[in-house]
Structure prediction request, 461 residues.
Amino acid sequence: MTLLLGPALGDAARTVEAHGIGGAKDLPISPELAVAGAVAALTISFTVLALAWRTPRYASEHTPDHGGHLLPDVAQRVLDSRVWRIALRVVGLLFFAWAGIAAVAGQDLLTNPFFGMFYVWWWVGIVPASLLLGPVWRAVSPVRTLNLLLARASGSDPERGVFAYPARWGYWPAALGLFAFVWLELVYPYSTELGPVRLWAAVYVAVMLVGGALFGNTWYARADPFEVYSSLVAKLSVWGSRDGRVLVRSPLSNLATIEARPGLVAVVAVLFGSTGFDSFRESPTWVRFLLNTDAIASRDWAATLADNLALIVFCGGVGLLFAAGTMLTGVGSEQRRIHLPGQFAHSMVPIIVGYIAAHYLSYWIEVGQDTLIKASDPMSTGANYLGTGDWRVNYWLSYHPTLLANLKVAGVVLGHVVAVVAAHDRAITLLPKRHQLTGQLPLLALMVGFTAGGLFLLFAA
Prediction:
């Protein structure tokens, strides 16, 4: 792709190409000290939980849901109103239309805002949006809205499709969709060319619309990779629901309500494993290996093949390690061991959120601003439709590396501590009393390993 280099491009656009994660240069603290502190935090947390947390406290499919405070009737009526729901759908359609203009009519340049809207606003931004607002993608999803409009035009019910969604599919379609996205972003050698990215987005829209027509809105709740991702992250928000009413409750109570469906472990494995691979591929060790591979093979495809294999190993490795750790946890449990990974998969969500926050923090803030500036000129004609074209990116966070370092390490550690709490609460729900502590040791060891590995990758990038 032709690159428009110069002042107009700036550091932020170059960051899009390199994913702008930042690593050791951002973290002016000792990695050994950070890892030691994180491991100590997990160990202390587990010890305190073992002594003071003896009975389940959060709702799940095994315990009744009594927590939370319902919103006042006035607020509930606003959220249930037709005007509110339509307004959210319009927001999603406007975003979809603006991105479509940039994708179809924009130029094949890195300054095209479609790349930032696709990789930054959509993919990274879905995490903070869901943490703050709940399952936001479900509310604004343009594919849901288009399916609704098509159903109304044909006189059918968007909730019901031609077929019932097979229960055995679970979240497997979403896991495949998520892997397809991270493959495009991290491995595909032309991920910053407009044609392939535009094609990926078009295929996504087509598959979602066909799936919605065949299986109704259940398709979006189970198979839309972005809706499943948003809904999982939203379980760490304070917004829950009961009998159709919105309530405010503990994020840990929300987290425990994640249903253990087929493919859930695959979803969390792809999300966590791909983020780990994104750090690993920026490390000097992997870069040197790829350079040597290219030199030996004298082929461009050698590095691409190595990246493909590494991404599969990271995602598959996370899934296998988590499955092994949770199945070993089930010593003496009445549950079948093969079902335990799904029962504990909810505890991976805080780890994913913490590591994504650490990994993409400066990227999201800085490149997100740059995208807003460029979005004012979607066709690269010099226009300023949104009035943001003259704005400048604020690099304040990158100018304070110690603060950035502390935020990144805190994100990883806090995510793992919350995961330990969630896993402990589920363990004392599932495991017999004689194994409620010893049965958790394999899972604790796994989380300590994830913490140490995540921090080392964060520093190595």
Observations:
- Residues 24-460 form one domain.
